[in-house]
From TrEMBL, chain A:
Keywords: Oxidoreductase. It holds the Pfam family FAD_oxidored. Residues 891-977 form the Aminomethyltransferase C-terminal domain. Residues 599-871 form the GCVT N-terminal domain. The keyword Methyltransferase does not apply. One of its GO terms (molecular function) is sarcosine oxidase activity. It comes from the Bacteria. This is Sarcosine oxidase subunit alpha family protein. Belongs to the GcvT family. Residues 499-583 form the SoxA A3 domain. SUPFAM superfamilies: Aminomethyltransferase beta-barrel domain, FAD/NAD(P)-binding domain, Folate-binding domain. Gene3D superfamilies: 2Fe-2S iron-sulphur cluster binding domain, sarcosine oxidase, alpha subunit, N-terminal domain, BFD-like [2Fe-2S]-binding domain, FAD/NAD(P)-binding domain, Probable tRNA modification gtpase trme, domain 1.
From TrEMBL, chain B:
It comes from the Bacteria. InterPro entries: TrmE/GcvT-like. This is Sarcosine oxidase subunit gamma.
Length: 985, 190
C-alpha cells in the first residue's frame, strides 16, 4: 500500500522499507519510523478506543506521553499489550493490533457505553451498581471489567530473557536534547565518568523534530556530530533506548534499556530488556518538556493531536495526519508548527489563536481572538467549528487539528523524592524547585528554559556546577548559535460554554465536567479528585492531562493553579515491564538453590527432594515396590531403630567460635551453662531472645579450651550467626572471641541406629577409639577416616538412638556417603530423609521449628529449669516475667489417639471433652504430628495448658477445616526410650 | 581400618573443575585453593603481623584490599579478619600450617570447602561485572576486594588484574546457581 501521507525529507531511511501489519492489514514503512509515524504515513488515523466509553481515538503525541495509541505488539507468547505506538520502533514483520474493542476497531460494539455516558460520570462506580449487593461480584464487576480495561495478556510465559545490572558514574544525564548534549559535551571533555541516557532510539531529543538551524547545521546533524565525539570518549557511556524511570535515595536511579524491543525477537542469549540501577554522584535532568492540549467539545477525535507532535511527525518522520491541518494555539509555538507544516507542503487551513494580539502570517490565515468550539467526524476529524473574535461561527474542513497550549517541563524525576515543583508565570507551567535536591539538577526545557539557545547554555552551566562539587574542573564548550525566541503565551486551558464533553484525560475518559462534578461533590484536594475521577492514572499517568484538570479545579476553587498544587509524581516515569523487574529471577532461577554434599548421590538413588529454605534436601528415598511416601518413610524409620541409617545433616548451621573468652561468650549466649563444658564434650544448648522466648536450640562441641563448634537449626543458621555477631560486637566487645560460619565447609552426616558404631568403626582409622568407653555419649573430637582424611565426630542423637554425626571437608561428602553405604551393606544400612528424621525426633520428643516458633518459652518446652539463675545470659531476666511463669501456661506434651487408627493432624486444636469447640475453650494446639511405625499409630507433640499436670487425660483433637475430631490421650512427649538408655549403649 | 582414599568432588559436582569459554571470556572453577580464615585475638595485632610478615612479605592488607605473593594470597574479609589462600595441592592441611605459624595470635578456621571459586578471565570484564553486582568494576584495581551480593549470594570479589581478571568466591552449596548466573550473563554480554 502506498504511503499516502508521507512527506519529503525526514530522518527515515527510505532505502530500507519495512513491512508491518496493523489489525491484520499490511503496510510499509521505513527504518527510522515508529509504528505511529508509519501508520500516519499510511493514512491511518484511527488507532485505538478509549478506556471507558470506547470512543474512537487516534495518535495524540509523538512520544512516551501518548494517551491514546495503545496497541498490542507481536503475537502469541511475545504479545505485549498497552504498548505506545509512538515509541514502538518499526521493524520488518512487526505485528500490531488495536485493543479494547469488539469486534473491530472501526465497529466497536462496546461503544454503546458512550450512549450511556451520563450514567458513567466521575466516580460512577462508587454510586451505582449498589443494589442488589450480591450482583456486584457476579454480574456488575465482571461486566464492567469486560467493558473497560486495556490490552490483554496472552497467558503464556514470556519466552525472552531479561537481565539487570548496575552502573556507576559521576554524572548521569537524563535526556539527549540540546541541553543534554551540551551537558554531556561539557562533562565528557572534562574527563568525568558520564552516562547519557536517552529513551529514543536516536540521540538528539527535540533537535530531531525541529527545522531551526544550530549555527549552519540542522539540529539532527549537530546532535550526530556531538554524539560522534562522545562515542570517542572512553569516559562517556551512551545508552539509547533507555528510560530513566525513577530517582531513589542516595543518588540511585532506575533505568530500563530496551535492548531487543526493536527486533522481531532477541538475538540468541541476548536479553530483551535490561533493568539498570545507576549509582550517580550527580545527575542532570534534561528530559525536555511535554506539550499540553486545549480542551473543547469533542476534542478527542482521531486527527486531533498535539501541535508539537505534528511538527515532529512532519520534520523527523516525514509523515502527516492530513494534508489539511488547522492549528489551535494560545502561544507562539503553535505558529512555529504551522510554519513547519506549511514548509513541508501541508495546507494550513487556519491557525486559530485565542490571543487577540496573535502574530500575523503571510503563509496562512491567522484567526486571532478565535477559539475552536467543536469538531465533527465519527472515526476521524472532518471539520472544526470556530468561534471567531466577533462571536460568529465558522466551519473549517480539515483532517487534523494541532493543539498548542504551551509546554510543561518534564519535572517528574525531580519529584520522586517528595520534591514539589514551583509555578513559573512566564511559561504558565510548573518547573522544578531549585536547590532542593543536591544530587539532581534540571536544565533546558525540563527546567523551564524553552529556547534552544537557553537549553544549550543551561546544560553546559549546570554540568560545570555539578562537576565542581565533585572537584572536576570543566569549561563551557563552544556552543552553536541557536534560536532564542521568548515564550509568548496567554494561559488558556479549555473552551467554555459547550454542552458536550471536553476531554481532559484522554486515556481515562475524564472530562471538564467530571472535574467540576467531583468538585461539586466535595472532592477539593487534587489528590482526591485524581482518585475520584481516575484522572492521571494508567500508562500515561496524565502527562498531557493533569495541568488542564488543575486549571479547571483552580477555577472552581477560585484559586491559582499553584495554590491548588499538583499530585505527587512517583516512579516509574513510564511503564516498566514486570519482566524487567524480575530479570533472571523467575522459574527455577527465582532464587539460588543450596545443594547438600550428597545431592548428586541422592539424585542417583531417586530421592524425592523438598525445599528447606534454599536447601534442597532429600525427603525420602523410595525403593522398588514402594508407591506411597509413607511406605518409604516407615521403612526408613524402622531401619534406623532396628539397625542403622544415614542422613545428610549438612544443612544445620555450624558456627566456629574461638578465642580466649569463647566459653564465657557461649555462657552468655545460651541460657544453660557452658563455662565448664570439658574439652571433647558436646552439650545441648537453648538460646533465648532478650524477651525470654526461645530463639533456637542446638549443640556446642568443645574441641579445645578456646574452640567450640556451635550447631543451629537449618532455618536459623543465619539469624543465630547474626545474633551472635551482634552480641560479640555490640554487647560484649571486651570478650576475646571470634566467629565464622563453617556451615558450607563441612559435609556432615548423622549415622543413627544400634549398629551406628559398628558401621563407623569400618571407616574410622584405627588410631581412634570410638568405643562406648573411649567415645561416650556427647563426646566429640577430631579424627581421621578412610586413611588419614581429616574428620570430626560428634556423639549426639536427634533420633534417640545410638548415633553420631560425622563431618568431613565438603568435597569428600559425596565419597563418604558412598563409602558409608557400601560399608553398611552388612547392616542393611538405609539413607533416610527429612520425613523420617521428623518422625524419629517426634518419637523421641525433640523440639524443632514447629515448637520453636518464636512464641514458646523454655518452660513451655519443658526446659524451664535449664535457664540457669547462677549466671547472666540473654533472655534470663525477662524469662522471669510473671506471665511467662504462670502455672496454667502451655506445656509440651505428647498425644496418642484413643483409637489407634485415628490420624492426628498438625495444627489441630485441643479441647476439653464436653466443651464447645471454640476459641474461648481452646486448650492448646498440635505442633508436630506423624505416623509412628514404632508405636503403630499417629503420635503428636502439642502445647497444652497445664500439660505437664494432665498426663493420661483424654482430650479432643479438633480441626474443623480438616473435618477432624478425635480423642487423644495426653502422654509424655518421649514416646521412645524416655530414660535415654539407647543413647548411651 | 584404613582402606581407601576418598575421591573428592569439585563444587559443581564433577571430578574435574568446569571450564567454560564464552566468546573471549573464560569462566574457570578453581578447586585447587586452600582457604583459611584468621581472626586476630584481642591485642595481638602486632604479634600476628610479626608471625606472618615473612610469609606475606609485607603487612596484612587493609580493608577492601588483597595482597598476592607467589605462594599465598591474603584477603581482608572483615575487621581484624583475613582469608589466607594457597594451593590446595601444596597445602592440603593449610589451616593447621597457619595455626602452627601464628600460634594463638589469631583464631584459625578452615574455610577451604566453604567456597566455590571461579576465576574469570577476558579482555574486558566490565560488561560482565556490571550485570553481576553493584560494584564499580571499572574502578577496581588489582588487589581490590569487596564482599558483594551476586543473585542474592554473598560473594567475595577479588580484582586480580584491572578489567581482565577477577576471582569470585561464592558459597559452595550454591555453586551451581552461581555458575548458572555467571554463564548466563557471560552469554548476554559476549
Amino acid at each position: 500500500m502506498s504511503q499516502k501521507s508521507r512527506l519529503d525529507g525526514g530522518l527515515i531511511d527510505r532505502s530500507r522499507p519495512l513491512s508491518f501489519s496493523f489489525d491484520g492489514k499490511n503496510y510499509t514503512g521505513y527504518a527510522g519510523d515508529t509504528l505511529a509515524s508509519a501508520l500516519l504515513a499510511n493514512d491511518v488515523r484511527l488507532m485505538g478506543r478509549s478506556f471507558k466509553y470506547h470512543r474512537p481515538r487516534g495518535v495524540f503525541s509523538a512520544g512516551s506521553e501518548e494517551p491514546n495509541a495503545l496497541v498490542e505488539l507481536r503475537s502469541s507468547a511475545r504479545r505485549e499489550p498497552n504498548t505506545r505506538a509512538t515509541v514502538a520502533e518499526l521493524f520488518d514483520g512487526l505485528e500490531a493490533s488495536s485493543q479494547n474493542r469488539f469486534p473491530s476497531l472501526r465497529f466497536d460494539a462496546l461503544a454503546f457505553n458512550d450512549a450511556f455516558s451520563s450514567f458513567l460520570s466521575a466516580g460512577f462506580y462508587y454510586k451505582t451498581f449498589m443494589w442488589p449487593a450480591a450482583f456486584w461480584e457476579k454480574l456488575y464487576e465482571p461486566a464492567i471489567r469486560r467493558a473497560a480495561g486495556l490490552g490483554r495478556l496472552y497467558g503464556k510465559e514470556d519466552p525472552d530473557n531479561y537481565d539487570k545490572g548496575f552502573l556507576h558514574c559521576d554524572l548521569l544525564i537524563i535526556g539527549s536534547g540540546p541541553s543534554g548534549l551540551a551537558t554531556a559535551l561539557t562533562a565528557g571533555r572534562a574527563g568525568a565518568e558520564v552516562i547519557l541516557a536517552e529513551e529514543d532510539f536516536i540521540f538528539g531529543g527535540r533537535l530531531l523534530a525541529e527545522r531551526n538551524l544550530l549555527s549552519e547545521q540542522d539540529g539532527s546533524e549537530w546532535a550526530a556530530t556531538v554524539i560522534s565525539e562522545l562515542q570517542s570518549l572512553a569516559n562517556v557511556r551512551l545508552l539509547s533506548r533507555t528510560t530513566v524511570f525513577g530517582q531513589y535515595d542516595h543518588g540511585i536511579f532506575g533505568a530500563v534499556e530496551r535492548v531487543s524491543d526493536h527486533l522481531p525477537e532477541p538475538i540468541s542469549h541476548k536479553p530483551r530488556q535490561v533493568l539498570w540501577r545507576i549509582y550517580a554522584k550527580r545527575a542532570l535532568l534534561t528530559a525536555g518538556a511535554t506539550e499540553r492540549p486545549i480542551a473543547f467539545e469533542n476534542n478527542d477525535r482521531p486527527g486531533i493531536m498535539l501541535a508539537g507532535a505534528m511538527r515532529a511527525y512532519a520534520n523527523r518522520w516525514a509523515a502527516t495526519a492530513s494534508q489539511d491541518i488547522a492549528i489551535f494555539t494560545n502561544n507562539d509555538d503553535g505558529h512555529r508548527t504551522a510554519r513547519d507544516l506549511s514548509a513541508q507542503g501541508v495546507n494550513i487551513v487556519a491557525l486559530v489563536d485565542c490571543r487577540i494580539d496573535a502574530p500575523p502570517s503571510t503563509e496562512f490565515e491567522v484567526l486571532s481572538g478565535a477559539q475552536v468550539v467543536n469538531s465533527r467526524g465519527r472515526l476521524g476529524l472532518k471539520s472544526i467549528q470556530v468561534q471567531l473574535r466577533d462571536g460568529s461561527m465558522k466551519e473549517l474542513a480539515c483532517g487534523a487539528l494541532g493543539l498548542a497550549g504551551g509546554w510543561n517541563p518534564n519535572v517528574h524525576l525531580t519529584c520522586h523524592k517528595r520534591g514539589r515543583p514551583i509555578w513559573n508565570d512566564k511559561i504558565s507551567a510548573f518547573v522544578p524547585a531549585t536547590d532542593t535536591d543536591p544530587l539532581l539538577r534540571a536544565a533546558g526545557a525540563a527546567a523551564g528554559i524553552l529556547s534552544t539557545h537557553g537549553a544549550l547554555l543551561s546544560g553546559a552551566g549546570k554540568a560545570i556546577e555539578a562537576l565542581k562539587e565533585l572537584d572536576i574542573s570543566a569549561r563551557t564548550p563552544i556552543l552553536p548559535k541557536a534560536e532564542d525566541a521568548p515564550v509568548n503565551i496567554a494561559p488558556f486551558w479549555y473552551v467554555k460554554g459547550g454542552k458536550g464533553r471536553a476531554w481532559l484525560d484522554l486515556q481515562n475518559d475524564v472530562t471538564v465536567k467530571d472535574i467540576k462534578l467531583a468538585h461539586q461533590e466535595g472532592f477539593k484536594s487534587v489528590e482526591h479528585v485524581k482518585r475520584y475521577t481516575t484522572l492521571g492514572m494508567a500508562t500515561d499517568q496524565g502527562k498531557t492531562a493533569n495541568i488542564g484538570a488543575l486549571a479547571v479545579l483552580a477555577e472552581m476553587e477560585g484559586k491559582t493553579i499553584p495554590d491548588v498544587g499538583t499530585t505527587i509524581f512517583r516512579p516509574p516515569y513510564t511503564p516498566v515491564s514486570i519482566g524487567a523487574f524480575a530479570g533472571g529471577s523467575r522459574g527455577k532461577e527465582f532464587r539460588p538453590y543450596r545443594l547438600t554434599p550428597s545431592h548428586k548421590w541422592a539424585e542417583e538413588q531417586g530421592a524425592v527432594f523438598v525445599e528447606a529454605g534454599n536447601w534442597l534436601r532429600a525427603q525420602w528415598f523410595p525403593i522398588e515396590g514402594e508407591s506411597h511416601w509413607r511406605q518409604s518413610v516407615d521403612r526408613e524409620v524402622i531401619a534406623v531403630r532396628k539397625s542403622v541409617g544415614i542422613c545428610d545433616v549438612t544443612t544445620l548451621g555450624k558456627i566456629d567460635v574461638q578465642g580466649a573468652d569463647a566459653a564465657e561468650f557461649l555462657n552468655h549466649i545460651y541460657c544453660n551453662g557452658f563455662a565448664k563444658l570439658p574439652v571433647g564434650k558436646t552439650r545441648y544448648g537453648l538460646m533465648l531472645r532478650e524477651d525470654g522466648f526461645a530463639m533456637d536450640d542446638g549443640t556446642a562441641a568443645r574441641l579445645a579450651e578456646d574452640h567450640f563448634i556451635v550447631t543451629t537449626t537449618t532455618a536459623n543458621a543465619v539469624p543465630v550467626f547474626r545474633h551472635m555477631e551482634f552480641c560479640r560486637q555490640c554487647l560484649w566487645p571486651g570478650l576475646d572471641v571470634q566467629l565464622i560460619s563453617t556451615t558450607e565447609a563441612w559435609a556432615q552426616f548423622a549415622v543413627a541406629g544400634p549398629n551406628a558404631r559398628d558401621l563407623l568403626q569400618k571407616i574410622v582409622d584405627p588410631t581412634h577409639d570410638i568405643s562406648n568407653e573411649g567415645f561416650p555419649y556427647m563426646a566429640c573430637g577430631e579424627i581421621t577416616i578412610c586413611g588419614c582424611l581429616r574428620a570430626r565426630l560428634f556423639r549426639i542423637s536427634f533420633s534417640g538412638e545410638l548415633a553420631y554425626e560425622i563431618a568431613v571437608p565438603t568435597r569428600y561428602g559425596d565419597a563418604l556417603i558412598r563409602r558409608l553405604m557400601e560399608a553398611g551393606k552388612e547392616f542393611d544400612v538405609v539413607p533416610y530423609g527429612t520425613e523420617a528424621l521428623g518422625v524419629l525426633r517426634i518419637e523421641k520428643g525433640h523440639s524443632a521449628g514447629n515448637e520453636l516458633n518464636g512464641q514458646s518459652t523454655a518452660a513451655m518446652l519443658g526446659m524451664g529449669r535449664m535457664v540457669s539463675q547462677k549466671k547472666d545470659s540473654i533472655g534470663r531476666v525477662l524469662t522471669g516475667r510473671p506471665h511467662l511463669l504462670r502455672e496454667d501456661d502451655y506445656r509440651l506434651v505428647g498425644l496418642k489417639p484413643v483409637n489407634a487408627g485415628d490420624p492426628i493432624l498438625s495444627g489441630a486444636h485441643l479441647m476439653n471433652v464436653g466443651e464447645i469447640a471454640n476459641a474461648a475453650n481452646d486448650q492448646g494446639w498440635v505442633t508436630s504430628a506423624a505416623y509412628s511405625p514404632h508405636i503403630g499409630a499417629s503420635i503428636a507433640l502439642a502445647f497444652l495448658k497445664k500439660g505437664d499436670q494432665r498426663l493420661g487425660e483424654v482430650i479432643r483433637i479438633v480441626s474443623p477445616i480438616d473435618n477432624l475430631e478425635i480423642e487423644g490421650e495426653v502422654t509424655s512427649p518421649h514416646f521412645i526410650d524416655p530414660e535415654g538408655e539407647r543413647l548411651r549403649v | 581400618m584404613s582402606d581407601q582414599i576418598l575421591t573428592p568432588l569439585a563444587a559443581l559436582g564433577d571430578h574435574s573443575p568446569r571450564i567454560e569459554k564464552i566468546g573471549s571470556l573464560t569462566i574457570e572453577e578453581n578447586p585447587d585453593l586452600a582457604i583459611t580464615s584468621i581472626a586476630v585475638r584481642h591485642r595481638r595485632d602486632k604479634d600476628l603481623q610479626t608471625f606472618l610478615m615473612p610469609a606475606l612479605g609485607g603487612e596484612l592488607p587493609s580493608p577492601g584490599r588483597s595482597v598476592f605473593t607467589s605462594d599465598v594470597s591474603t584477603i581482608w574479609t572483615g575487621v581484624g579478619q583475613w582469608f589466607l589462600i594457597a594451593s590446595y595441592a601444596a597445602h592440603p592441611d593449610f589451616a593447621r600450617e597457619i595455626k602452627s605459624l601464628i600460634k594463638d595470635t589469631a583464631s584459625v578456621t578452615e574455610q577451604t570447602d566453604g567456597w566455590v571459586v571461579f576465576d574469570i578471565i577476558g579482555n574486558n570484564l566490565i560488561p560482565l561485572m556490571e550485570r553481576l553486582c553493584n560494584l564499580n568494576g571499572k574502578a577496581m584495581m588489582a588487589g581490590d576486594t569487596t564482599r558483594c551480593l551476586i543473585e542474592h549470594l554473598g560473594c567475595l570479589i577479588i580484582c586480580r588484574e584491572s578489567f581482565r581478571k577477577f576471582t569470585i568466591l561464592g558459597p559452595r552449596s550454591s555453586a551451581a546457581s552461581l555458575y548458572h548466573s555467571l554463564v548466563k550473563v557471560a552469554h548476554n554480554v559476549a
